[in-house]
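Here's my example:
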Amino acid sequence: MTIRVLLVDDVVDVRRLLRTALRFRGRFEVVGEAGDGSEAVRLAEALRPDVVVLDLGLPDLAGREVLTRIRQRSPESKVVVFSGAEAEDRAWISKHVEGYVLKDTELDYLVDLLESVGQRREIQTTLDLPKELSSAAAARRFVTKTVTEWHLTSLLDDALLVASELAANAVTHAESSFRIRLSLKEAALRIDVIDTGAGTPEPQPSSFTEEHGRGLHLVAALTSAWGLETIPGEGKVVWAELARPH
């Protein structure tokens, strides 16, 4: 599985060294290079790499600012800092990146870290909602905001239909509050609805007169996979996955 990397450093020789080391390892593809912060932000948004290798000493943007912008424009990308010196705000930066490596460290350590980070390609966000009919609408707003931020608007309509059905089932049939969780995986957008109610959702035979149960046929038609997992002593998870566009 290829790990797509964006290199950000204002020193051409450093980028060349990193590109050579990654090519030698064989699992990486350098999809872009930037010599300043503005270009790094633009390329991160356009390319959405798996990993950004980021130098903090860029000529135009401070380290915290360029990191914040990259996180906003490409939230699914992992960021590993590769810096020539300790940052004054190291503690803050370390909380917002997957790795912090000084340039006097052995290069093999950096490449090993990038390989490890690049393999963990999943991010999640959750929202807890009460047992109220209005919670389905709140779930749809949450899905709209998250899917838009993840640059997956081509999946938005289907994601909204799926989330609405699963949220409505939790409130009206399980009679439970619930948690909706969105996970961004390499190949799919996963929607989980976790509730503590009794019973399990089951598709009903197609009927022109019966309304209940028809929504799960819609979920099955829209998704690449869906199912149910029990949580002993806690409830259940009803999940569905939408294939990400290539």
In short: The longest strand covers residues 235-243. The CA atoms of residues 134 and 204 lie 25 Å apart. The domain at 123-243 is CATH 3.30.565.10 (Heat Shock Protein 90).
